[in-house]
UniProtKB/TrEMBL annotation:
Pfam assignment, any one: PA14
A biological process term (GO) from this entry: arabinan catabolic process
Lineage: Bacteria, Pseudomonadati, Pseudomonadota, Alphaproteobacteria, Caulobacterales
Assigned keywords, A-Z: Hydrolase, Signal
Molecular function terms, GO-annotated: alpha-L-arabinofuranosidase activity; xylan 1,4-beta-xylosidase activity
Leader peptide range in chain numbering: 1-29
UniProt record similarity statement: Belongs to the glycosyl hydrolase 3 family.
Protein name: Glucan 1,4-alpha-glucosidase
Organism: Caulobacter zeae
Boundaries of every PA14 domain copy: 474-608
Keyword match Kinase: no
Length: 883
């Protein structure tokens, strides 16, 4: 043996001794190339995979990958969610929902947010890391964010998770988010980001497991794919998640065109591909795509196309189990080399995270659990929420000229935690609702809160445990709970005492439940008057009070949550029986009520006594979100069928306006709202999105004028869905600001300020050759009386066939003091000047290029003035096809 070889062996052994002493991520020290930190991640992964058995390799394809103790490989859970903060892992800093972050139009700010989220993931990982280095679900370092699908239609419930409807805005934010999550260390990721859902995925939610989308070649190249290409090429994203739907007859996770030809071939992607959860089952299930016939065939065709990791499947016949994967290899459906390739990619990612290196070699190993949810992180959340607020309308009421003496805060989202956090969320440790924010900002005012209405019905809340009794004398608290097998309250029941009328099952692990339940006891209300009752959740139910059937929804209508009303007397014990059935593998049921003091009459009375009325309404992720059953008019399966304010909210809002008091409408939602009546009648409207844990402070500060609003819409607020093509039509013609020719209520890019801006004449070359970049410089001045941020937006219009009306190709958020002027420079690369033809070919065509640089699009309507800005024009000579 040569001296150099002996020295190298000695060095590797020394590193392993150090790793054993200091790194719980290495469960068993081994003398092999896999642990040699001087080798590339690819060489180390190849060495490890070469030592694994077929069965061990097959086990690594599931998101909850088992450990391989004999090789010192700990178990690893790949599933973590970080859309706008660490999700589903307890308390964490909750930032505004993604669509709200997009409204900041502030790329550096959002990169800071993503960096902070990565820090908190590291903190959560260290906090719960196993002694062998294993990680738990939602507390790992592989983050399945960002969602860069195009929000093409406001009806899509998951549009709130995206960066809006524009490919350029989405790409810029997506790249920044990836850079923030993955960090800047040249050797190791801070966390590994995932671009999802690839591709052409945006509802309807109810049909996503079997829909086959046939996008035009133009729409693919022009709208659906550019953001993914940017995250691969510029963002260097580690992972891509393939979607549920099929594209042109082939499930996305089994698509050679998407994964092999486009992602890995044309774009040169080197990372790993993870399926959306249960998407591989969709490949073979007869109720879904039925593209393959068995789990083994499903996993084989997916891996051969380029999928590497299988997220959770439910029920029997899981393709992610070891058996079907081994069978696929042994039966020749795929080769062991193809399996090896997928497993190698997965271990490369884990090595790049530093999970097999000594902590001293990993820059991020100094992060501790104390770095989660810090005051500084919450301050960043507040800053982001403030930047996301969009002032949709203002007739001069805002900012308030003086502190009101009496404020009525009304509406279903005024004191709602759900309205702060959106979906895929963490739990804020110190949540500030709008009500709390107003009270904190105006400590000397008399602030009255009346909910007035629920989101889609009466203002329902869970019954407090204290009002439920086991006996008429209320000597004992709780109710009797009887649980029957089957759905008809028949047979022998299991009896026990429950604190409340509620049941939950299938969390965190799904479990099939077919049961029926009966709760009996007494209810002792604290108010006299008419109370309304309903049972939230899935399944049929009855509510019986004092022997009278108040609600009978045993055979529940498809689009309703029936309610019933009954008069109750404060302090009197009323006999109550609730019966319900449960059928499914995950769900919740809970009895809710509405008390007399919560209703519309009380809200209007409070408004009459106030100097200022804040109505805080909109939606929550309980109505719009991912594949769920929502029983309310205007909603279906997690999506929306209408985009106006739900009828109960609209009715109350009109009643508040009729009092003659000034009403500010604060919207909290994740998608466009057609508030046509409010725009015509009310003096001020604020779009607050789902603003995160500090959202209440941001709303109150805007109203008070503590800062000038500067958020801009990342999507179009249409007047009605009647202006749009059918939801299931994936053609872009007639939708998004780029191809919508109608009059919007509020256009993409819109947002008002408390100050005014002026744009100078742009400086740009008179002509450029096709394929050359061009610079545009322009002076922007704050000509108002107060400081404020402007969002300068640059739009390009080309007259060529296939070109949109206009496209955003540059934007900058700039802080300007009163009277200050700054010169901004935009660089337009050849792609910014290009158009896509019907064949999907992108080219820079000869001819004029029209530019608009301003604080929004150059559009107006009665009641909405065109924003400040200027036009310019230059010419392109020649033609150049772009790759």
């Amino acid at each position: 043996m040569s001296v150099s070889v002996r020295s190298r062996r000695f060095g590797v052994v020394s590193l392993l001794v150090l790793a054993m002493a200091t790194a719980p991520a290495v469960a068993m020290a081994r003398v092999d190339a896999f642990h040699d930190v001087s080798l590339s991640p690819e060489a180390r992964a190849a060495d490890l995979v070469s030592r694994m058995t077929l069965e061990e390799k097959a086990g690594q394809l599931k998101h909850a990958a088992p450990g391989v103790p004999r090789l010192g490989v700990p178990a690893f859970n790949w599933w973590s969610e970080g859309l706008h903060g660490v999700a589903r892992a307890g308390e964490a800093t909750v930032f505004p929902q993604a669509v709200g972050m997009a409204a900041t139009w502030d790329v550096p700010l959002i990169q800071d947010v993503a960096d902070t989220i990565a820090t908190e993931f590291r903190a959560k990982y260290v906090e719960k890391r196993g002694a062998d280095g294993s990680s738990g679900q939602y507390r790992g370092l592989t983050v399945w964010s960002p969602n860069i699908n195009i929000f093409r239609d406001p009806r899509w419930g998951r549009g709130q998770e995206t960066w809006g409807e524009d490919p350029h805005l989405t790409a810029e934010f997506g790249v920044a988010f990836v850079h923030g999550l993955q960090g800047s260390d040249p050797r190791h990721y801070k966390t590994a980001a995932t671009a999802k859902h690839f591709a052409v995925h945006s509802g309807p939610e109810a049909d996503r497991h079997h829909d086959d989308i046939h996008p035009s070649k133009h729409d693919l190249a022009d709208t659906y794919l550019p953001a993914f290409e940017a995250l691969v090429k510029r963002g260097k994203v580690e992972s891509v998640m393939c979607a549920y739907n099929a594209v042109d007859g082939v499930p996305a996770c089994a698509s050679d065109f998407l994964l092999k030809d486009t992602l890995r071939g044309k774009w040169g992607f080197k990372g790993h591909v993870v399926s959306d959860c249960a998407a591989i089952a969709d490949v073979f299930l007869p109720t879904s795509h039925n593209y393959a016939k068995t789990p083994a065939e499903g996993v084989a065709v997916s891996l051969k196309a380029g999928t590497d990791l299988i997220c959770a499947e439910f029920g029997a016949n899981k393709s992610s189990e070891i058996g079907p994967i081994v069978d696929a290899v042994k039966s020749g459906l795929m080769s062991e080399a193809e399996l090896d390739q997928a497993v190698r990619r997965l271990f490369v990612a884990r090595i790049k995270l530093g999970l097999f290196d000594p902590p001293a070699n990993v820059a991020y190993s100094k992060i501790t659990p104390a770095d989660n949810d810090t005051p500084a992180n919450r301050a960043l959340s507040l800053k982001t929420a403030q930047a996301s607020m969009v002032l949709l309308k203002n007739d001069g009421l805002l900012p308030l000229k003086a502190a009101p003496k009496r404020i009525a805060v009304i509406g279903p989202n005024a004191d709602s935690l759900d309205a702060l956090v959106g979906n895929y969320n963490g739990t804020p440790s110190k949540p500030v609702t709008v009500l709390a924010g107003v009270r904190a900002r105006y400590p000397n005012a008399e602030v009255t809160f009346v909910e007035g209405t629920g989101l889609v019905g009466a203002p329902m809340n869970t019954l407090p445990n204290a009002v439920l009794c086991a006996d008429a004398a209320c000597a004992a608290k709780g109710v009797k709970l009887e649980t029957f097998q089957g759905l008809e309250l028949a047979g022998e029941a299991k009896a026990e005492t429950a604190a409340n009328v509620q049941v939950s099952w299938g969390r965190p692990t799904r479990e099939k439940r077919q049961a029926s339940t009966r709760w009996t006891g007494f209810l002792k209300p604290t108010e006299t008057g008419v109370h309304r009752f309903t049972l939230r959740g899935e399944g049929g139910y009855r509510v019986i009070v004092d022997g009278r059937v108040v609600v009978d929804a045993w055979k529940r209508p498809a689009d309703a949550t029936p309610e019933g009303a009954v008069a109750l007397t404060a302090g009197q014990a009323h006999a109550i029986t609730v019966e319900a059935w449960q059928d499914g593998d995950r769900g919740d049921q809970r009895l809710t009520w509405s008390k007399p003091s919560q209703g519309a009459e009380a809200a209007i009375a409070a408004a009459k006594d106030a100097d200022l009325v804040l109505f805080v309404g909109g939606l929550t992720a309980k109505l719009e979100g991912e594949e769920m059953s929502v029983r309310a008019p205007g909603f279906a399966g997690g999506d929306r069928t209408r985009i106006d304010l739900p009828a109960p909210q609209q009715s109350l809002l009109e009643g508040l306006h009729a009092t003659g008091k000034p009403v500010v409408l604060v919207l909290m939602n994740g998608s466009a709202m057609a508030v046509n009546w409010a725009d015509e009648k009310l003096p001020a409207i604020v779009e607050a999105w789902y603003p995160g844990g500090e959202g209440g402070h941001a709303v109150a500060g805007l109203i008070a004028g503590d800062y000038s609003p500067s958020g801009r819409l990342p999507l179009t607020f249409y007047r009605s869905v009647d202006q749009l093509p059918p939801f299931k039509d994936y053609g872009i013609a007639g939708r998004t600001y780029r191809y919508f020719g109608g009059e919007a209520l509020y256009p993409f890019g819109h947002g008002l300020s408390f100050t005014s801006f002026k744009y100078g004449q742009p400086k740009v070359a008179k002509s450029v050759k096709a394929g050359e970049a061009v610079k545009v410089s322009i002076d922007v001045s704050n000509i108002g009386a107060r400081d404020g941020d402007e969002v300068a937006q640059l739009y390009v219009s080309r007259g060529a066939a296939g070109a949109p009306i206009r496209s955003l190709k540059g934007f900058q958020r700039v802080a300007l003091k009163a009277g200050e002027t700054r010169t901004l420079t935009f660089e337009l690369d050849p792609s910014a000047l290009s158009v896509v033809d019907a064949a999907g070919v992108r080219a820079v065509e000869a001819g004029p290029v029209d530019l608009w640089v301003g604080g929004g699009q150059p559009v107006s309507r009665p009641g909405l003035a065109k924003p400040a800005g200027v036009f310019a024009r230059f010419a392109v000579t020649g033609r150049k096809v772009l790759p």
